[in-house]
Design a protein that fits this description.
There is one protein chain. The chain has 3 domains: about 100 residues, Beta Polymerase, domain 2; about 130 residues, no CATH class; about 45 residues. Helix 8 crosses helix 9. With about 325 residues, it is an alpha+beta fold. The chain is globular and about 80 Å long. The protein contains 14 helices and 10 strands. Keywords: Coiled coil.
């Protein structure tokens, strides 16, 4: 296997204006920024970083606040130290002056409540562990992310649904065959490889290039540490154990699994109802062309016959009368 760097600087939002920080500077300056923002938020937390990471391109901080932040808020906190600002969803990226000649890229990740804070504390800790867990979860039909843990379901029409199972990412790990206690013990990038490969679901084929989603392949190419982890996982040559993807879901969270089955049954029932009484069936039964009358007919059906799975003769007669169709 060719030599792959564990850590390599990647292109950042603020480019060369943001200094890369060694470990000592990272903790000195992140402590300073934590102290400055603490009076303005309910809670602020610095994710747990891997001890073997020698330097950092940015400082990630998770801040709990019931209200969204604004650029004005950060100007009030940092004053002239704030050199630039950008927002992407609930991630607020700042370029903060830390000395006469240096500035740091700081990402404030907003959590709306304690549950959201808990999820994001776990997700953004332990280096690039979470993106790799995310890849494993997708291969098993789940979604692991900052919004919680979901089961993916493809309905009979080919549409995908993410059905929430739990807000507890540790429960999500267990459903994937991963051990949260081992997650807590991760201190190096090689520990991540050991952690992921310990899942009974794991096979090296899951992480081969043609098995990964396009976004995962692109992410691996951009981020050296993820590329390193993936190459290590591919080299393990682990064969399938024949486990069904939901085995730990059923075993660990039986009530949630029953709710999941009820949810997909409801989805399919609604889908069949929409299929049985749709615009095409209305046009065929009433002998009308596409247009406003079709919409009026569907609106009437949904209001007066919400559980209808077909157009009965009686419904056709009533619709003709209501719409004035001969």
């Amino acid at each position: 296997m060719a030599h792959i760097e564990k850590y390599r600087a990647k292109e950042k939002l603020f480019g060369d204006r943001a200094s890369r920080l060694d470990r000592e500077d990272y903790y000195v300056f992140s402590d300073k920024i934590l102290h400055e923002i603490e009076p303005f938020v309910e809670t602020v937390y610095r994710p747990d970083q891997l001890p073997d990471k020698p330097s950092f391109g940015d400082i990630d901080l998770i801040a709990q606040s019931s209200d969204p932040f604004t650029e004005k808020d950060f100007k009030e906190i940092f004053g002239e130290q704030l050199l630039d600002y950008s927002r992407n969803g609930e991630t607020y990226s700042l370029l903060v002056k830390i000395s006469d000649i240096r500035a740091a890229h700081v990402d404030f990740i907003r959590a709306i409540d304690e549950t959201d804070l808990m999820r994001k504390e776990i997700y953004f800790s332990k280096g690039h562990t979470s993106p790799i867990i995310g890849m494993l979860s997708r291969r098993l039909g789940f979604t692991y992310g900052t919004e919680g843990f979901f089961k993916r379901y493809c309905d009979s029409k080919g549409q995908w649904h993410d059905i929430k199972i739990t807000d507890d990412l540790f429960e999500g790990m267990q459903i994937l065959g991963l051990d949260p206690e081992e997650w807590r013990r991760i201190t190096t990038i090689d520990d991540i490889v050991t952690f992921i490969s310990a899942s009974p679901h794991f096979t090296n084929e899951m992480f081969e290039e043609d098995s990964l989603a396009k976004r995962d392949r692109e992410q691996i190419q951009r981020i050296a540490s993820q590329e390193y982890i993936i190459e290590k996982l591919r080299a393990l040559e682990r064969k399938p154990q024949g486990l069904e993807e939901n085995v730990f879901f059923k075993e660990l969270l039986p009530k949630q699994y029953e709710q999941y089955e009820r949810t997909i049954a409801e989805l399919e029932t609604k889908l069949q109802q929409r299929r049985a009484v749709d615009g095409y069936s209305v046009m065929e039964a009433l002998h009308i062309a596409p247009g406003e009358q079709v919409g009026q007919a569907l609106e009437y059906i949904h209001e007066h016959y919400p559980d209808a799975t077909e157009l009965t003769d009686e419904m056709v007669i009533i619709l003709r009368r209501e719409l004035g169709v001969e």
